[in-house]
Amino acid sequence: MKRILLVEDDPNLGLLLQDYLQLKGKFDVILCVDGEEGLKAFGKQDFDMCILDVMMPKKDGFTLGKEIRKINQHIPIIFATAKAMMEDKASAYDLGGDDYITKPFRIEELLLRINALLKRVSAKEGAELSPVETHFLIGEYTFDYTTQLIHFKGQQQKLSTKEAELLQLLCLKKNAVLTREEALLSIWHDDNYFNGRSMDVFLSKLRKYLREDPKVEILNVHGKGYKLLVN
C-alpha cells in the first residue's frame, strides 16, 4: 500500500480527500493541517508521495515543498492551491514539484493524477535502461547531473530538479537540436502550452547560469527547439 502525506489546512476538505483516497485509491493517507506538522510527519516515516496545499498557516506549501526536497530529491510532490497565477505554477515546478492542481478540483481528477504520477515513477525505477551520462564539460563549466551542480572557477550553482533534467538533455545533444516536444514529453510528460511556458523560464535561468563563458550559448532554433552550442 502506497503511503501519501496530505497537508491541507481546510479540515473538511482534508478529511474528505483522506477518506476518498483511502477508500477508492487504497492508499494509506496521513493528514496534517499545516506545514510545520507536515514536515514533522515527513521526518518520522516514509512516504511515496506528497500532496501539499499552498496557502497554509505557519508554513506555506511552497516552503514545505522546498524543505522536503532537501530531504528527498525524488519523492513525487503535487501542489494544490486556489491560485491560478502563472507565477505560482512556475514556482511549483521550480521548487521541484511534479504536478499542480488548482482548486476547486474534482477528487476523481486528483486520483487520476496520483495514479499517473506513481505509474511514471514506478516505470522509471523499474526500467532497465542503459547507463546515461551524468558528468559533462560545457566550455569552462562542469555539470554534475547527480548532484545538480554547475561548477565554474571555484564557484558552484545549485539547480532545481527540472533545470538539471533540461540541462542534461541539452548536454546529451550538445551542438545538435533538442526538439521542444522531446524536452516537454521527457521532463513534463505533456507538451501543453503551460508546460512550454514553464520550460521557457527554466531555459532563461540556464542561460543566466552559463553566461560567463562567451563560447557557450543556448540557442532557439526557430520552429524546432533548442541547441546547446559550445564553440
Apparent shape: elongated
Runs in which pLDDT lies below 50 for 5 or more consecutive residues are none
Q: Report mean pLDDT, rounded to a whole number.
A: 88
Question: In CATH, what is the homologous superfamily of the largest domain?
Answer: Response regulator
Helix fraction bin = 40-55%
| Cα-based radius of gyration, to the nearest Å | 19 Å
Structural class label: alpha/beta
- Relative strand content: 15-25%
Q: Count up the domains.
A: 2
What's the CATH C level of the largest domain?
A: Alpha Beta
Instruction: Please give the CATH architecture of the largest domain.
Output: 3-Layer(aba) Sandwich
Distinctive features:
alpha/beta; five-stranded parallel sheet; 43% helix; elongated; 231 residues; Arc Repressor Mutant, subunit A; Rossmann fold
How would you summarize the topology of this molecule?
Elements: E1 3-7, H1 11-23, E2 28-32, H2 35-44, E3 49-53, H3 61-71, E4 77-81, H4 86-94, E5 99-102, H5 107-126, E6 135-138, E7 141-144, E8 149-152, E9 155-158, H6 161-172, E10 177-179, H7 180-187, H8 193-209, E11 216-221, E12 225-230
Parallel strand pairs: 1-2, 1-3, 3-4, 4-5
Antiparallel strand pairs: 6-7, 7-8, 8-9, 10-12, 11-12
Description of the structure:
The chain has 231 residues and is α/β, with parallel strands linked by helices. It contains eight helices and twelve strands. It has two domains: 124 residues, Response regulator (Rossmann fold, 3-Layer(aba) Sandwich); 96 residues, Arc Repressor Mutant, subunit A (Orthogonal Bundle), CATH 1.10.10.10. Helix 2 runs parallel beside helix 3, helix 4 packs across helix 8 and helix 6 packs across helix 8. It starts with a strand and ends with a strand.
